[in-house]
Amino acid sequence: MRIALAQTSPISAPSGPAALEKPHSSSPFPTLDENLVGAVKAVEHAVAQKADIVVFPEYFLQGIANESRQYLTFPAAHLLAFIQSLAKRYNVAIVGSIVHGALPLSAEGQSFPASSPFAHIPLSCTGSPRPTKITPSQLEWAKFIEQNLPTTEENSEPVLKNTAFYVEAGTGELKGDYVKRNLWHPERDYLTAGEEEHQVFETKWGKAGLLICWDMSHPAAAQALADLGVDIIFAPTYWLATDSEPLIHNHPHQHNYETEVVSALCMVRSFETETVFVMCNAGGDEIEGFMGGSGVWAPLRGCVAKMGAAEGVQVVEVDPAVLKDGRKTYKIREDWSRREAS
Prior knowledge:
By secondary structure, this protein is of the alpha/beta class. Helix content is 28%, strand content 18%. The strands form 2 sheets. A 6-stranded mixed sheet has the order 5-4-3-2-1-12, with helices on one face. It has a 6-stranded mixed sheet with strand order 6-7-8-9-10-11, covered by helices on one side. α1 (30-48) runs parallel beside α2.
């Protein structure tokens, strides 16, 4: 199984209404456009290295959607459709997360525009250049946003759902999705925690499941997937080196404390659930707080590969057959199942 860790640096729109990010663009969603172009480049790079699966960070297309940026979630279905088209074109599975939103109250009785505002973006970096003039679909979306901006009250309500996905190679089928259940406390102001039970889905390499970022700090989340027989856990992540500030500065600590915490969590979740654990974090400029550290962990292998802080795409090869020997050696899953049955 060849896994591409697409450690991108998601662009976030300026906080505030949509008009603040459009002074130099005819697009209603310039931030989403740029992140989609980055995703296309990452997929092309991964496929050139014969990747089977491309795993992106959390928020890789929308950036952070708080502080009056709910409008970025309006075309979520079209973002997913774009990713499905990439999976079809390049015959590669794709994992990531997309935040889905609700219609604002001002749009009661309406629906989101049916046409995609991203149809102008080529599925190949060597394809036709993007049009410089606004397309009819973009114009329709621009008018919709202008007429249906969420109110201040709506922007303060946690109605958004951060949803991880696994899109199948070749067919573009949505094989599995999962709404983040364990929200990092600042996210609780604008995201709604998922309530659906964890699920696993079949892949050619075994049963797979999804977690998102802060879920990895809750052992029960990974254990719920293990109880369902999961073999591979994918965890799109957006964890910054500044997340423990300011209180961490009250105490002596390693300069790479945050990275070490994430790496340790991934290793422990892999070991205790006897799974291949794949975590892809956002990367970028360390001055801006990005720390990367994306990697793959497995029993008997430990950290198979781990990236630094910079953006990039790294392909990691791991054989899920290692899980058979890991489970035979440690019998953690066997002991847990016996305990649950008694």
